[in-house]
Amino acid sequence: MKAPFIWDGYSDQPYPIKDRVYKQQMRTKHRWSYLPLLLLTMIFFPLGMLMMRWVKGEAIEGEAFYGMGVDIDKGEAQVGLIEELGVKHLLIRMPLWQMDRIDAVVAFAQSFGADKQILLSIIQDREHIEDSDLLQRDVAEIFKKFSPFVTEYQIGHAINRTKWGFFSMEEYLGWYEQIATLRDRDYPKLKLVGSSVIDFEYHYTIRTLFNGFNLRYDRFCALLYVDRRGAPTNKQMGIFDTRTKIDMLYALMRLSPKTTQHLYITEVNWPLSNTAPYAPTSERECVSPLDYARYMGTYHTIARESGKVERIYWHQLIATGYGLVDDREGRLTKYPAFERYKQMVAEG
């Protein structure tokens, strides 16, 4: 990543943008994007509220429900840990600012074996948002090298957080449209997954579902966190816990002509106490390892029983501040959530 976007290697995400002048310039440039955002939210949020209780889900397959995030920088030990967990679906990141590592990421993905199904997350940076030719060239290279064994691609990540590069949903939609055009022309069998809004910010989700761009999501996804300070049964805005957030999201999908009804949750976790600076939040939001395992189990149960979530990709296998395994000082220590996750997969 290039300044003012700076990577935090502890929590595996960019730092918040500190250049206030730059942020204000970009927000001013995209100020008119707030108008359709507001108008569409005023229309479709109430409609989603009306529909969400009446739209039914379907039975979810056992093993296919579970997915796990793995990372090239966390080492080869992940291969054995994934085998121990028994999970067959993996999410692997391919940051566009690391195209010089693409062959290493290909080898890393293949190291898990041919029986694993991979969702490759193509993660944006500002350079690839602003330079269309660069975007086309590098995404074409990604499709060329991964398409022999990867069929699903998550297009963009946490698109409603400016620290990840986008400053409006219009920017994201135009960016996705370019990639979809490339896919349609050269790799029509590949499946594209979007729109990757993080947290319960459904005004952004609504904007990506209701638009005039030439695109469609083959799978729809969200990075659906619920309550960073507590249980997945806790509520926001008086009524929105994990189940009602899923109901609302699925209702919006049913209202939109821009997506199929396949829903993935591509990121969720809880931050772990006493792991600073590795935790992605402050200590105030962190939970104990035992609560983490319990909340993880409850979250999966609620999502599965809804019949509306096809797969959850847990973020992630090895991460001291929020994962299933602590790797401080070069030693791998399994948190209680590791055994809980293995149990869930085994039970199907």
How many strands? 12
Tell me about the largest β-sheet: 8 strands, parallel, barrel
Q: Order the strands across the largest sheet as they lie in space.
A: 3-4-5-6-7-8-9-10
Rg, alpha carbons = 19 Å
Question: Would you tell me the structural class of the helices and strands?
Answer: alpha/beta
- Binned, the helix content reads 25-40%
| Oligomeric grouping of the chains | single chain
User: Runs with pLDDT <50, length 5+?
Assistant: none
Number of domains: 1
Which sequence of SSEs, written as H and E, runs from N to C?
EEHHEHEHEHHEHEHEHEHEEEH
Distance separating the two termini: 39 Å
- Average of the residue pLDDT scores: 96
User: Helix tally?
Assistant: 11
Structural write-up:
The termini are far apart. The mean pLDDT is 96. Helices cover 39% and strands 15% of the residues. The protein contains 11 helices and 12 strands. It is globular. With 348 residues, it is α/β, with parallel strands linked by helices. It has one domain (15-347): TIM Barrel (Alpha-Beta Barrel), CATH 3.20.20. The longest helix has 18 residues, at 34-51.
Primary descriptors:
348 residues; alpha/beta; TIM Barrel; 8-stranded parallel beta barrel
